[in-house]
Amino acid sequence: MKKIALSISLLMIVCAVFSQKNQPSLKLKSYQRGYISGVAPTSSIELGGKETAAPAAKLHSEYFIYLLAYKVPYLKIERVWIRQQLYLANIDQITKLPIVLQEGKKKDTLVKYTDELVWQIKILGKDTSGIKPKKDIATQVKANELVIRLNDPSGHVYTRASKHINIIEAIRGQ
């Protein structure tokens, strides 16, 4: 009887270890870079010498979001929330690594070389459908700057969140 119980326990441990090794690993890397489009506004001098202040330059944001996936050959994006705002996005597999962002002499390596699959999530614009997050994900959306919901062909749904989006130094133009 003890041998049967020991065998069952050993089998359960082996199954648990094996199932953990087959679990997909999805790591999120997120960056935001601001840029000022067009010519920077300047102050003007009116008739009589009165100087009016220049309007503030509008800073636009560009997001660089990557998902490093182990044991997930295909992913589909469901939803993306950035700072509690829903965005439209698509997802594409990246084949050329590392991913380096270069502006003049400044270089930022966003994703280093890895054996894992790398997916880029491209933000297309704000989603104006008015869809609100369901209760199961609403707390994550409130607590994190970035929340992504994905699925794979077998129907598994994955949610990944990033507490903070890494800021890259702003650039001019674009």
- The total count of helices amounts to 2
Instruction: Give the mean pLDDT.
Output: 82
Low-confidence stretches: 17-21
Radius of gyration: 23 Å
What can you tell me about this protein's structure?
It is a single chain. This protein is an alpha+beta fold. It has two helices and twelve strands. It is elongated, with a radius of gyration of 23 Å. The N and C termini lie far apart (74 Å). The protein has one domain. Strand 5 and strand 6 form a beta hairpin. The chain has an eight-stranded mixed sheet, with helices on one face. Strands 2-3 form a two-stranded antiparallel sheet. The relative contact order is 0.23. About 3% of the residues have low confidence.
Indicate the topology.
Blueprint: H1 2-21, E1 25-36, E2 44-45, E3 51-52, E4 59-70, E5 76-82, E6 85-94, E7 99-103, E8 106-111, E9 117-126, H2 135-143, E10 146-151, E11 157-162, E12 166-172
Parallel strand pairs: 1-12
Antiparallel strand pairs: 1-4, 2-3, 4-9, 5-6, 5-10, 6-9, 7-8, 10-11
Keyphrases for this structure?
single chain; 49% strand; 174 residues; two-stranded antiparallel ribbon; eight-stranded mixed sheet
Provide a quick synopsis of the model:
The chain has helices spanning 2-21, 135-143, and strands spanning 25-36, 44-45, 51-52, 59-70, 76-82, 85-94, 99-103, 106-111, 117-126, 146-151, 157-162, 166-172.
